[in-house]
Automatic annotation (TrEMBL):
SUPFAM superfamilies: Six-hairpin glycosidases. Pfam families: Glyco_hydro_15, TREH_N. Residues 9-155 form the Trehalase-like N-terminal domain. Residues 217-583 form the GH15-like domain. It comes from Mucilaginibacter ximonensis. InterPro entries: 6-hairpin_glycosidase_sf (IPR008928), 6hp_glycosidase-like_sf (IPR012341), GH15-like (IPR011613), Trehalase-like_N (IPR045582). It comes from the Bacteria. Keywords: Hydrolase. Gene3D superfamilies: 1.50.10.10. This is Glycoside hydrolase family 15 protein. GO terms for molecular function: hydrolase activity.
């Protein structure tokens, strides 16, 4: 059976994201926001998901590449009568004193060879495919309306060809500009060309301003570009993925909506942005997390995840009318995990606030309420430090005293201790230190001295890849025999021959997992580098690179046997894992560029 990979690339401008299939169709696009209903959702239902394709009259082959160092995507179609290119992008560039990032999708169609005959089909839907959009056509545009929304498609293609979905000969460059809200009324061709030039220039300058080492640089560049457009710039939130309900493996029922921001990933995201030197993105994300922190200041606990505007109610519903990806149901809208108890997040928030006090790029002026909200954060840690929770993997019906949760409680207390020291509050410093010791006691209760490994929870025999973080976060001294023993035990049980890593292999709410979680394999690479096994880290890192699709984009899950991509795609945190692993190796190598 052939390896399954996702046949799409993504474009975006930090206002929206779209998936462009190799067959030219816009397979997925939510408008006007990441978490809005889709206007194109063929990825989840070929019939009800709508369509926006540019296809020839005959059989064809397709090649798809990004314009170098950009989020501008080019799809070349070769058919019986010739060859043409579709260039897709979401405009983004500096205009006056701000970034121009309209809700606008631009498609440029140019003939490359011969005179291919093509058909353009544009049929958006609303309310997750329950209704088609109504069409009102003018002389050079189509206006779509439905579900209280409107959008306009402007084009220099004779409008009759689009309305009647007729083939026509492509003998000159054509443009399609889909605009949210109304029909675009400016000069079409010159505007599209100007926006394309300026968008390419913007992305290439953004990469030039990135601090990216030479170690497998093309992969890190693509990961950085992918991560960037998963950030909703208005609030700074970074979503886990732009998709929902792509199964962890076929028939698993593990189909989740990932269009939200998980606090559990804060530490890793901030670390990756810091590594590439993009302070502005880090600051925006930092502000999103701190806004949630202050808004929840008097609340008993944080949620594991929030909407991109900080929304708390993410009620999970089943879209029964949709077929699902390759027939995999259910299709979920919303995520019940927002209601779970997940106690690592208090440490995550504490760590995310630390730069306010320790990173001199922030202009720090002492807040009058610093003692109050650091105390509030420690209150949350103290109330939950002895509590069972759902853990990092969000078990739905299993609660334990998880090692990973207490690791981040420990790290969060370390961060609070440093903040307290900075503001000169000895009482707060002592309180953080005492809580840190309590968290460490729970972690130590997970240690199995016979197998010389930390298990995933107190009183449990099972191993979990999340405990790799004990090494990377220096809870265990990476140079110690204890770190080497712990890593060896995890390798023996969770690592595949192909370099992939299972989160765990014991039965959970849905049975035994059949796919590996890609970020765990990148954590493993980091752990190898930490304990000094750098040559092995490089070998294992190189093994993982083959699990991308044709555009160097990585999924959430990978089949441990055949290497197929599964889970939501592309997964921002898989790319974060790659970036952090590459950085860790590059720092260890520290070679002159000429070697």
């Amino acid at each position: 059976m052939a390896r399954h990979t996702y046949q799409t690339g993504i474009i975006g401008n930090c206002n929206f994201l779209a998936h462009v299939n190799k067959n030219t169709n816009i397979d997925w696009m939510c408008w006007p926001r990441f978490d809005s209903p889709f206007v194109f959702g063929g990825m989840l239902d070929k019939n009800k998901g709508g369509e926006f394709s540019i296809l020839p009259a005959s059989d064809y082959t397709s090649e798809q590449v990004y314009a170098e160092n950009t989020n501008v995507l080019r799809t070349d179609i070769t058919c019986k009568n010739g060859k043409y290119r579709v260039t897709d992008f979401a405009p983004r560039f500096r205009q006056y004193d701000h970034f121009y990032k309209p809700l606008m999708l631009i498609r440029k169609i140019e003939p490359l060879e011969g005179v291919p005959r093509i058909k353009v089909k544009c049929s958006p839907v609303c309310d997750y495919g329950r209704l088609p959009q109504d069409k009102l056509h003018g002389s050079d545009y189509i206006k779509f309306t439905g579900c209280g929304e409107s959008m306009g498609l402007s084009t220099n293609i004779p409008i009759t060809y689009l309305i009647d979905e007729e083939y026509f000969s492509l003998n000159e460059t054509k443009y399609l500009l889909l605009n949210y809200g109304d029909v675009w009324e400016g000069a079409l061709a010159s505007t599209c060309e100007q926006y394309l030039r300026e968008t390419i220039e913007y992305w290439r300058l953004w990469i030039k301003h990135s601090s990216i080492a030479l170690f497998y640089q093309p992969y890190v560049i693509r990961s950085a570009l992918a991560l960037k457009i998963h950030q909703y710039e208005d609030t700074g939130a970074i979503i886990a993925a732009s998709t929902t309900s792509l199964p962890e493996f076929p028939g698993s029922g593990r189909n989740w909506d990932y269009r939200y921001c998980w606090l559990r990933d804060t530490y890793y995201v901030l670390t990756s942005l810091n590594h590439i030197g993009h302070f502005e993105e880090m600051e925006r994300y930092f502000n999103y997390v701190t806004d949630i922190s202050f808004s929840e200041n008097d609340s008993f606990r944080y949620q594991p995840l929030y909407g991109i505007t900080g929304k708390k109610n993410l009620t999970e519903e089943i879209a029964e009318h949709l077929d699902g990806y390759m027939g995999n149901k259910p299709v979920r809208i919303g995520n019940q995990a927002s209601e779970h108890i997940q106690n690592d997040i208090y440490g995550q928030v504490s760590i995310s606030l630390l730069p306010l006090y320790t990173d001199h790029r922030f202009i720090y002026s002492e807040r009058k309420d610093s003692n109050k909200w650091i105390n509030s954060l420690l209150d949350k840690i103290e109330r939950t430090i002895d509590e069972h929770d759902a853990g990092i993997w969000e078990f739905r019906n299993i609660a334990l005293m998880h090692c990973y949760s207490n690791l981040f409680q420990w790290a969060g207390c370390n961060a609070a201790e440093k903040m307290a020291r900075t503001i000169g509050d000895k009482t707060l410093e002592e309180r953080a230190c005492a809580l840190k010791e309590r968290a460490a006691a729970h972690i130590e209760a997970c240690y199995d001295p016979v197998r010389k490994v930390y298990t995933h929870a107190v009183g449990s025999p099972y191993l979990d890849a999340s405990t790799l973080q004990l090494i990377m976060m220096n809870y265990i001294d990476p140079a110690s025999q204890k770190a080497r023993d712990h890593l060896a035990a995890l390798e023996k049980e969770l690592k595949t021959d192909t370099g992939l890593f299972y989160r765990y292999i014991h039965t959970d709410d849905f049975g035994k997992p059949k796919t590996t979680f890609l970020i765990c394999a990148f954590w493993y690479v980091e752990a190898l580098a930490c304990v000094g096994r750098v040559d092995e880290a490089i070998v294992e890192f190189e093994k993982l690179l083959k699990y991308c699709n044709h555009l160097l984009l990585f999924s959430e899950d990978v089949d441990g046997v055949d290497g197929s991509q599964w889970g939501n795609f592309p997964q921002a945190y898989s790319h974060v894992g790659l970036m952090n692993a590459a950085y860790r190796i590059a720092v260890k190598l520290d070679r002159p560029v000429f070697l």
